[in-house]
Amino acid sequence: MTKYKLEYIWLDGYKPVANLRGKTQIKEFDSFPSLEELPLWGFDGSSTEQAEGSSSDCVLKPVAVYPDPARKNGVLVMCEVMMPDGVTPHPSNTRAEIMDDEGAWFGFEQEYFFYEDGRPLGFPEQGYPAPQGPYYTGVGYKNVGSIAREIVEEHLDQCLEAGINHEGINAEVAKGQWEFQIFGKGSKKAADQIWIARYLLLRICEKYGIDIEWHCKPLGDTDWNGSGMHCNFSTKYMREVGGKAYFEKLMAQFEKNLQDHIDVYGPDNHMRLTGKHETAPWNKFSYGVADRGASIRVPHSFVNNGYKGYLEDRRPNSQGDPYAIASQVLKTVSEVENEMSAAA
Ligand code: ADP
Ligand code: MN
Ligand code: MN
Ligand code: MN
Question: For residue 315, how far is its CA from the centre of ligand 4 (angstroms)?
Fold first, then answer.
């Protein structure tokens, strides 16, 4: 038997953006534990905005498990928060009832800022660094500084070791801003991995004395880039059948459901989706081939393959909840696909 360090990770009840929480319990197993072997656990919900003090127990239900690359015999256990009965999802549990489908694939591009002493990493104490231009995909000390790359490399390695489907990294448009991409099949699988990747990034940064600023427009109404979490998506139908008529119906449905999408695409998105800096205004739906100023970008390959493949919704932001985002995308796409199959 081996003593494993199980890190139970969950989302708290803070609004509008939940924080990641985690605590450790030690348990003995013959070998690396499977999901089914992991017990329910509890925590004090009155300390996480998830319960009143008088009746404060909340239940943690393991839903996904990964090896913890930073700990000897470590296990990362993604959990849903349940009511004391252990079966009713807690109101803060945005994962339990989302739409899911293994045939729906999601690629999230998570952007974020490194922050040190309350400002983006590499910003001078007063004023601003040289304007944007050389930072995106940049190389060299004056563009990316000395620590950022060390952190993103360590994060990449830890994600890969944990079995996260990490697909890539790049320095972003603003100084101190970076991006990583994660791909998953199914809403829950893709979104769980984003949350674990966020967790790993935060945890790695502790020892560097650096914070992650997830806000979508941390530098406010300036020319400095905001942070998105573009959601690239495809369903089996989109990849294998597609077609122009389907595509046009799909875009009409996205336009009709505009508000439902914006409602879950992350807080303060009106600050970011202004129509400037490769964004479309939040209150007007648009799409275009290779158009980075549209709400939805249609890759050239999609059109060239007879309107088949994947699409990129550029509106979700860096603070968005990937469970809610994936679910809403799937809901809109399903409305169209159900209509198509009913008509066929
Ligand atoms: P860009 O910065 O040009 O928008 P990235 O390379 O950062 O592009 O991101 C592209 C994303 O598209 C990746 O996250 C990738 O996983 C995703 N993707 C690629 N093919 C598919 C597909 N068939 N279905 C869903 N997502 C996909
Ligand atoms: Mn990208
Ligand atoms: Mn980007
Ligand atoms: Mn993108």
Answer: 10
Both ends of the chain: CA-CA distance in Å? 57
Query: Does the beta carbon of 136 sit less than 6 angstroms from any atom of ligand 1?
Result: no
Host H or E run for residue 323: helix 322-343
pTM: 0.98
- The structure tokens 């697909």 sit at 167
Q: Does residue 230's CB lie within 6 angstroms of at least one atom of ligand 1?
A: yes
pLDDT of residue 56: 85
- Please state which architecture CATH assigns to domain 2-82: Roll (3.10)
* 40 Cα: distance to centroid of ligand 1 (angstroms): 35
Considering the four listed CATH numbers 3.30.590.10, 2.40.37.20, 1.10.3720.10, 3.40.50.10580, the one that applies to the domain covering 105-343 is: 3.30.590.10
Indicate if the pLDDT at residue 342 is higher than 90: no
**Mean pLDDT, residues 202-229:** 97
- Taking a C-beta distance cutoff of 8 angstroms, is the pair 313, 253 a contact? no
- pLDDT beyond 80 at 73: yes
Region 61-75 average pLDDT: 98
Residue 258 phi/psi, 5-degree rounding, is: -45, -50
pLDDT of residue 344: 79
Rg (CA), the chain: 21
Instruction: Decide whether any atom of ligand 1 lies within 6 Å of the 232 Cβ.
Output: yes
- At 24, which helix (H) or strand (E)? strand 20-29
The model's pLDDT over 221-242, given as tens digits with 9 standing for 90+, comes to: 999 999 999 999 999 999 999 9
Residue 16 is encoded by which pair of tokens? 């509008």
**Residue 137 CB neighbours (<10 A):** 12
pLDDT of residue 281: 97
240 lines ligand 1 (CB under 6 A): no
